[in-house]
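Quick one, tokens below. Sequence please?
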């Protein structure tokens, strides 16, 4: 078992964990066992971009929208917005 930010991932998990982990792991809020994916808080992920990368809010939002949400890979993390909806 692998524990990231207090969330348990099975040893055999193929879930993609975003790098650098020291910046983005605090944004992990759950593990979806059915889909074998990490679940990130959209708000916390944006904050990690601002803190670790030095982005402004608008730069972080642009990066997130284009580079993160635009990625379509199997086992890629899902992001949950403040209202509990999955970001698409």
């Amino acid at each position: 078992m692998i524990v990231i930010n207090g969330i348990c991932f099975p040893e055999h998990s193929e879930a993609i964990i975003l790098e650098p982990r020291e910046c983005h792991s605090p944004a992990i809020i759950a593990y979806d066992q059915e889909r074998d994916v990490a679940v990130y808080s959209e708000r916390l992920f944006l904050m990690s971009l601002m803190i670790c990368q030095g982005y402004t809010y608008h730069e972080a939002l642009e990066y997130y929208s284009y580079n993160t949400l635009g990625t379509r890979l199997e086992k890629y993390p899902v992001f949950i917005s403040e209202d509990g909806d999955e970001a698409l």
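Strands lie at 2-4, 7-9, 28-32, 37-41, 78-80. The chain has a mean pLDDT of 95.
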